[in-house]
Design goal:
Bound molecules: magnesium ion
Number of strands: 0
Distance between the termini: 42 Å
Mean pLDDT: 90
Low-confidence stretches: none
Number of helices: 3
Structural class: mainly alpha
Strand content: under 5%
Helix content: over 70%
Number of domains: 1
Length: about 90
């Protein structure tokens, strides 16, 4: 999908969300993230930041590595939101 084809106030965010989904789909064989600990996810986020730093240095795979970083941040936020909602239900 071309960035120019996207609607809305922040076309780059919509474009990037699509890149995040592409990475998630490529890892569909893995389980979801609802049972993962914050500690584990934060460690993976740091690893992915390292991969992104190397990708920028090499000028290669920058978009997919940035999407990996964003996906681990999204998983942390999603788990936080779900746990908050569940604790408010209880
Ligand atoms: Mg990666």
């Amino acid at each position: 999908m071309n960035r120019e084809d996207l609607q809305g106030q922040w076309p780059c965010v919509q474009w990037f969300a699509n890149e995040m989904q592409r990475e998630l789909n490529a890892n569909q064989h893995k389980n979801g993230w609802e049972t993962l600990s914050y500690r584990w996810m934060l460690n993976r986020l740091r690893q992915e930041i390292g991969e992104l730093e190397r990708a920028v240095e090499m000028r290669k795979d920058v978009v997919s590595e940035a999407a990996d970083v964003a996906n681990f941040a999204m998983m942390i936020a999603d788990n936080f939101l779900c746990k908050k909602e569940n604790s408010e239900d209880a």
